[in-house]
Design goal:
This protein is α/β, with parallel strands linked by helices and 252 residues long. It contains nine helices and 13 strands. The protein has helices at 38-47, 65-68, 71-78, 89-94, 106-111, 174-177, 192-203, 220-239, 248-251, and strands spanning 5-12, 17-23, 27-30, 57-59, 82-85, 128-130, 134-135, 143-147, 156-160, 164-168, 172-173, 179-184, 209-212. The strands form three sheets. The protein has a six-stranded mixed beta sheet, with helices on one face. A five-stranded mixed beta sheet has the order 7-8-9-10-13, with no helix packed on it. A two-stranded antiparallel ribbon has the order 11-12. It is globular. The mean pLDDT is 95.
């Protein structure tokens, strides 16, 4: 199978919120943006010469509104099934994120005041339920879905056979993508330590580049250095009992 091409699809700003078009034997979309983004994403992929009806799958990396907000609309526009992890079925089926949000810093605390992040969006029922590592070859892409829990319980990433990692909110660019190339936490994590463990697990697979939900692609070596600093920071916070983590009861 030929190399999978990764094409960013801007949903907000140039890179503030990204969806992705993956091109192989058939096209796959990763993430569906905020509510009302479905037609924009459909039109953008058509600009790349893709017939929307040829899309084989819509992969949702996790149950936050800026990633699954238009999943139901995009499903109607393309006819493609939606893939999501079973641990995030609650948000997908209700159209509501798990609350309260758990900010990772000042940006998250500021964004938590945005009423749009607390709105109910159109629910979506994934037709492809993800539980573990899942090949996408049957959908025309030389890639695997990889569970990467921590940002949410059901967070997933897509790793191509040539090492491109479409990472959702596993990591981000600073200030919601405004500082290109500089790794940072996204505004929220349900479990920061578990997310960091997932990130380091993916880095151990030697990806060539990380394509993130917020910002420009990140270079793995720079992410590794950031992850080492983040490990020390979180270790200090954990020792002081200052890490907020969503409990298992909150995930149901």
């Amino acid at each position: 199978m030929s190399r999978t091409k990764i094409i960013p699809i801007p949903v907000m700003g140039r890179t503030t919120i990204n969806a992705y078009l993956l091109l192989g034997r058939r096209p796959v979309i990763v993430d569906a943006g905020t509510p009302g983004s479905g037609r924009r994403i459909r039109d953008r992929i058509a600009e790349h010469g893709v017939d929307p009806s040829d899309v084989s799958l819509i992969v949702i990396t996790h149950g936050h509104i800026d990633h699954f907000g238009s999943a139901a609309e995009l499903h109607r526009l393309t006819g493609a099934p939606v893939a999501g992890h079973v641990a995030d079925l609650g948000p997908f089926r209700t159209g509501r994120v798990r609350e309260p949000y758990l900010p990772t810093g000042p940006m998250g605390r500021l964004m938590d005041r945005n009423k749009d992040l607390h709105a109910q969006v159109e629910p979506v029922e994934p037709g492809v339920l993800i539980q573990g590592e899942t090949s996408l070859e049957d959908f025309g892409i030389a890639a695997r879905i990889m569970p990467t829990p921590g940002h949410t319980a059901g967070s997933i990433s897509v790793l191509t056979d040539h090492g491109d990692l479409v990472a959702g909110d596993l990591v981000a660019n600073s200030f919601m993508g405004l500082i290109p190339g500089r790794p940072a936490n996204p505004p929220f994590h349900d479990d920061p330590l578990r997310n960091l463990a997932s990130l380091r697990k993916m880095l151990a697979l030697n990806p060539t580049r990380l394509h993130v939900g917020h910002g420009a692609p990140l270079e793995p070596d720079r992410v590794r250095r950031w992850a080492a600093r983040e490990h020390h920071r979180l270790s200090r916070l954990e020792a002081a009992g200052r890490i907020a983590t969503r409990t298992e009861n909150d995930v149901a």
